[in-house]
Each structure stands twice: as structure tokens, then as C-alpha cells.
Amino acid sequence: MKTSTTAKTATITNSTQLKTNKELRQDQSLAPVIRLLETWFDRLNKELFKGELPNVILTVTPDTTKGAYGWFTTSECWHDTKNDVSLHEINICSDTLNRPANETIGTLLHEMVHLYNWIKNKKDVSRNGYFHNDQFKETAVTHGLDVEKSEKHGWSITKLTPAMIKWCEGFKDFKAFELYRDPNPKRVASKPKAKSYKYVCSCCGAIVRTTKQMNIICGDCNCNFELED
Question: Among 63, 29, 216, which residue's Cα sits nearest to residue 228?
Fold first, then answer.
């Protein structure tokens, strides 16, 4: 009976071993994050914009503006050489990927509104792209967003409408991302440099360095090494 119990315990232990690096790669890669954002872009484009929006390059990079959740580039900064076409960029800030799904998808939709206004030649921002005007509000409220006014940035505060949240909840992948970039990572203290001791042969002048004090005899001249200050 003891042998049988031991064998069963060993089996349980083996089945609960940690994942290998190869198995963790799927969880620790941005590729699935980008693919899911692309999936949501396509869904929202079809549902709200009748498929009128062109393809964009979706990126995930840190916030460099101290407070943004994402951005849309009016310039076609990406170039597909295979198909000879240039594309706009929509970025979702990596520092905020762990927000609730409705907030992340809301940010994506916010940037898609900018894209829609751009291709329709409707100016929706001013003050170097920060102030969201009435044109932005008009498009946003007719494309699944509730909008609030910020004193500094105009109609820039947006969130999915309750109806849009309900629609999004119909998809199993409507959930927070499990991979995000920590904006304030803990710094790992560097190890203190080990003290070095310099010994010089009293006869031939040969030099030896060690990390601890030692008694050393020169193999060439049989003289003692002396510790040098």
C-alpha cells in the first residue's frame, strides 16, 4: 500500500510542474495582443462604420505623453512594400492594457473615430491635436461612445455606451488583457562589486589579483607574494 501511495503522489507532482519557456511564450508575447486588437478593430469597423475604415497598423507602446491611453497618427507612417501602400497607425498604450475590457476597447473606438473623421476630411481636433471639438463629439456619439467635456482637452473623455458594452459582451474575448507594461517597475539593486586584492611577487614582480586575502608563493622564484595597498 505504501508503494502505491508513493507512486500516486509522484504522478501528481509531475502533472503540476511549472510551464516551460516554450509553453509560456504564448502568454508572454505581444503577438496575441495585437491580433486581438485587430479583431476588435475589424468588428467595430463592420458594426459601426459599415466597413469604411481602411486598414491601419495597430501598435502597443508606452505612453510618452503623460496620460494618454492611445493615439491615432494622421500621417501614413507605415509602408507596406509588398503591396505598395502606406497606412495610418493606431496605438494603444501598453501601460494601460490591464484596464477593464470596456475601457481598452473604448480607447480603440475613440481612435477609430479620429480615423473616420480624417478620411472624411472633418477636422475634429485643434491645439496640436489635443483639443477635441464639436465635430469629434458629433461623430463619437453616433458611433457607440458617450462623451464628456474636459476643460483642458474639450470633448475628449469617452466611454462605450451601455448598448455597446452589451454588444461587446457577446464575444468571449471581451476581457482585460493579461499582459501589460508596468510604468513604474521595481528597480533591481545591482550587486556590490567584490573587493579586489593585489599581490606582487617580492622577487620577480609578478602580479596576482584575488577577491580575498591569501598566502601566495610564486612558482617561478619560490618567493612570497606581498599584499600591495
Answer: 216
